[in-house]
Design a protein that fits this description.
Number of helices: 23
Low-confidence stretches: none
CATH topology of the largest domain: Rossmann fold
Bound molecules: 1,6-di-O-phosphono-beta-D-fructofuranose
Strand order of the largest sheet: 1-2-13-12-7-6-3-4-5
Largest sheet: 9 strands, mixed
Length: 551
């Protein structure tokens, strides 16, 4: 049994860029200039001798013989769920079958580990039809296994040979696509004739640059969160008795929090990148929130909404240093640390190794937050920020500050709070029309890159603020987006994360309005995603994308 909406969405025909709408044989790639990595060029060139410097690719009208030969292609979903992943697979499947009905698409189950362990399903039309325009990654599942060892690459090589595959599409975020680049280089250097193509996925919105305007899933997830925030704002404005502290997913970058702030105009939105730039301490952030609460109380408004990006804690200078020291300790003494059973043992272990300043920062936290900071890192060595309850920490600290202000006679309001964390609620929603179209186009376009024999490229669809027929299709060498960073205690080549640009238009718009939003009640209620109706309601992009690409 499927819901009426799901049934209705099966029928939706995603829109493609004009160039991909005709016959498969009528498209040809055009090569641009050789490229360079965003920094650390010499080191990255040395690590990627076969795939460094490749040109950007765009598609134009022409002719090809891609469909003449039958091919088999593999696909995996990697990392956190993002709305639209199913449509990437559907787009890839449809292009493959349109090129040659004998072509096969093989889905490897459970993320990268499925590719290594050869857990697969061969897609059929009937099977794929049940996932068109739906959310989630349940078509084949996902996982966070890091593809990085030679042993894994050899296994993948054997799996590709067994299935007669000429290509693999990796649908993932910055870390997964970094792995895609490493795998592409490994295959190219060992003369394995298998292309590796990535597709830019992540609700976090931090996989973007001049060629990748946005990662898929950001549009839908921020619309889901904005709907929920708008509902809470309306509740707050009706009951007028709570301050709601809402933490929003997004890992390090604050793109999600900022987009939701632009959509809903809350009283406060903390932007981690600004906190870092201004070198704000935790107590300065607390003071800023307490000050806004006190000012609204003067107007008789003892309610409001505060948005907090989930990665905030990592951007507060003293805590950033603390986390980096903790990461090093946990990475370098992983066995000894893993052998510790209780929180007390772990806490004591790290305290004996932290520098004096970091130990002081660590000791400020209540035990709950200390324990969250000591939890397992993800396979890429990142702290799992979604599990650190920053919203509760801030409520506690702001409450204490307001008590002090009350005692000093500078605050006379009432501070009742509710805390929320919106993250998983938005990752598997039915994709918006934008994400349905964008993802389908990314998958369809990935076929052309693969059939054209390109490897180590990210599928790129641009000009996204225009209607889909004006979108531009092509590919960007992954090495072009790389720099060197310390991961798990070692210097590694990775795709550079795009953090919120404090000089960019989305932040500038927010900054020029936030004082008014803080004092007055300027809430906006975006409502639910709409799938049918006028284009300005149904096909609307995010405000971030619109401002970034405003002409
Ligand atoms: P990706 O970077 O893999 O797309 O994951 C995004 C994300 O949703 C982050 O926003 C969040 O911090 C993390 O995944 C949560 O991870 P998990 O699903 O493992 O709990």
């Amino acid at each position: 049994m499927v819901s009426p909406l799901q049934k209705y969405r099966y029928e939706y025909q995603p829109k493609l860029p004009e160039i991909l709408r005709g016959e498969i044989k009528d498209v040809k790639p055009v090569l641009g200039e050789p490229t360079q990595s965003v920094s650390d060029q010499a080191e990255i060139k040395k690590l990627f001798p076969c795939t460094y410097g490749m040109p950007e690719v765009s598609f134009t009208k022409g002719s090809n013989d891609y469909g003449k030969k039958k091919i088999n292609v593999g696909v995996i979903l990697s990392g956190g769920q993002a709305p639209g992943g199913h449509n990437v697979i559907c787009g890839l499947f449809d292009a493959l079958k349109k090129a040659n009905p004998e072509n096969n698409l093989i889905g490897f189950k459970g993320g990268p580990s499925g590719l290594v362990d050869d857990k697969f399903v061969v897609f059929t039309e009937d099977f794929i039809n049940e996932y068109r325009n739906t959310g989630g990654f349940d078509i084949i599942g996902s996982g966070r296994t890091k593809l990085e060892t030679e042993e894994q690459f050899e296994k993948v090589k054997n799996v590709c040979a067994k299935h007669g595959m000429c290509g693999i599409v990796i649908i993932g975020g910055d870390d997964s696509n970094t792995n895609a680049a490493v795998l592409a280089e490994y295959f190219a250097s060992s003369k394995v004739p298998v292309s590796v193509i990535g597709c830019p996925k992540t609700i976090d919105g931090d996989l973007k640059n001049k060629d990748i305007e946005v990662s898929f899933g950001f549009d839908t997830a921020t619309k889901v969160y904005s709907e929920l925030i708008g509902n809470i704002e309306r509740d707050a404005n009706s009951a007028k008795k709570y301050w709601h502290f809402i933490k929003l997913m997004g890992r390090s970058a604050s793109h999600i929090a900022l987009e939701c702030a632009l959509e809903t105009q809350p009283n406060l939105c903390i932007v981690s990148e600004e906190v870092e730039k201004k070198g704000m301490s935790l107590s300065q952030i607390v003071d800023q929130i307490a000050d806004a609460v006190a000012k609204r109380a003067e107007d008789g408004n003892n309610f409001g909404v505060v948005l907090i990006p989930e990665g905030l804690i990592e951007f507060i200078p003293e805590i950033k240093v603390l986390i980096s020291e903790l990461n090093d300790i946990v990475a370098k003494e992983s066995e000894a640390f893993a052998g510790l059973k209780t929180f007390e043992e772990k806490s004591d272990f790290v305290q004996r190794r932290l520098t004096a300043a970091s130990k002081k920062a660590f000791l400020v936290f209540p035990d709950g937050i200390k324990a969250q900071l000591l939890m397992d890192r993800d396979p890429h060595g990142n702290v799992q920020v979604s599990r650190i309850e920053t919203e509760k920490l801030l409520i506690e600290l702001v409450g204490k500050k307001l008590d002090e202000m009350k005692a000093a006679g500078t605050y006379c309001g009432k501070f009742s709070t509710q805390n929320h964390f919106f993250g998983y609620e938005g990752r598997c929603s039915f994709p918006s029309n934008f994400d349905s179209d964008y993802c389908y186009s990314l998958g369809y376009n990935a076929y052309f890159l693969m059939a054209g024999g390109f490897t180590g490229y990210l599928s790129s669809v641009r000009n996204l603020c225009k209607p889909a027929r004006y979108w531009k299709a092509g590919g960007v060498p992954i090495t072009m987006m790389m720099n060197m960073e310390v991961r798990n205690g070692k210097n590694k080549p990775v795709i550079r994360k795009a953090l919120v640009d404090l000089e960019g238009k989305p932040f500038a718009y927010f900054a020029s309005n936030r004082d008014e939003w803080a004092r007055k009640t300027c809430f906006v209620f975006p409502g639910a995603i709409q799938y049918a109706g006028p284009a300005e309601v149904c096909d609307r992009t995010t405000i971030t994308l619109a401002l970034e690409h405003e002409e």
